[in-house]
Design goal:
Blueprint lengths: L2 H12 L6 H4 L4 E9 L2 E9 L6 H5 L18 H14 L5 E5 L12 H11 L5 E5 L7 H10 L3 E9 L3 H8 L5 H13 L3 E8 L6 H15 L5 E6 L7 H7 L8 H12 L6 E3 L18 H14 L12 H11 L7
Parallel strand pairs: 2-3, 3-4, 4-5, 5-6, 6-7, 7-8
Antiparallel strand pairs: 1-2
Helix pairs in contact: 4-5, 5-6, 9-11, 11-12
The chain binds iron/sulfur cluster and zinc ion.
Zinc ion binds next to loops.
Amino acid sequence: MTRESLARTVARDRRPPPAPPSAASRYVNQWTEDEALGGERVRAFVLILKTRGCYWADVKGCSMCGYAKDTLGRSATPTELSEQLARALDRYREEPYVKVYTSGSFLDDREVDPESRLALVRSFSGRARRLLFETLPEFASETALDPLRASFRGELEVALGLETTDPTVLARYVHKSASPGEYLDAADRVRAAGLRAKAYLLLKPPYLTEREAVEDVVRSVGEAAGHFDALSVNPVHIQNGTVVEWLYHRGRYRPPWLWSVVEALRRGAERRGAARLVSFPTAGGLARGPHNCGECDARVLAAIQEASLRQEFGSLADLDCSCRSVWEAKGRLEPLGVEA
Ligand code: SF4
Ligand SMILES: [Zn+2]
């Protein structure tokens, strides 16, 4: 099977059938987590809204993204979205940082209509100091951004899944629809409109060796830093119904080592300019997430989180474990020599 047809087959299989109204009035998930605002540690309120999901996931989808399973299979109505918001607000405890995701793009009208967007932003206005939402670059227009900016007392932050600044890696391995240049242009528009821009950088797309993956992130940090206020390194974890999972089950993909995250942060820190550089790995230490030998995972994850919150990366150089030499050797061998 070619990569192209594999991607389309996986995309077709993962989209759920249209959901009944009862399912559409409940958001996907909500939790709180540690974050930082400037130098201050704060709690962040994270909300995943249930929407029709990312249009690109229907067309082809990205090789590591399984978010389509958390979608409605149709657009949510404004009433359904307001019910989801009301349920979320019941759980909101004035956390200073709020992050709203949709398993797609908050600014795509098919996912969240403009009035519902405004209602959500107004609900947190004057309460959260910063509100983050994510979008594909094509929806980050002045028309979409300006009313939100005018309706929120505080900072708005727009997250863009740039993943890499290498056009070949982005198109052929990650399977994104837009080019790196389109993401950088969108970040420039976001900042020109008075909002903050944050990039997600993907550590270890499929078909890269461990070493190539680290180099890809380090170079991307340097090339993207001037366009963004923050860069978040997101190591791949295996999501259900994805190309990456298909490869993983056939022994052709290992999630990145935590040593790779450490290396990407240490070297990326020197190229980040004025941008914040962070990493909060999902599923860290688990078989389907970024992991080391099992003995040192908790310690290395804690150091990664601490470095990200404090923006001090020097102490990462002191980390060690016997598995580090294994990681160095594997970096030369993958993706052919993959182990559990
Ligand atoms: S990673 Fe983003 S653009 Fe790609 S399919 Fe998932 S939600 Fe869509
Ligand atoms: Zn170890």
